[in-house]
Amino acid sequence: MDKINIRVLRHAAFYSPLLYAIKAGFFKAEGLEIDYQIANPTKTIAASLDDGSVQVAQWAVAASFPELERGETPQIVHFAQINQRDGFFIAAKEQTTPFTWQHLLGKKILVDHLFQPLAMFKYALHKAGVDVQQLEIIDAGDVLAMEQAFRAGTADYIHQQGPAPQQLEYENKAVIVAAVGDLIGEVAFSSLCATRTWLQTEQAAAFMQGYQKACAALVVSSAKHIAALEGDFFPQIAPCVLEKTIAAYQALGCWSANPRISEQSYNTLLDVFLHNRMITQRHPYHAAIVEFAA
Question: Which of 100, 269, 74 minimizes the C-alpha distance to 190?
Answer without folding.
Answer: 269
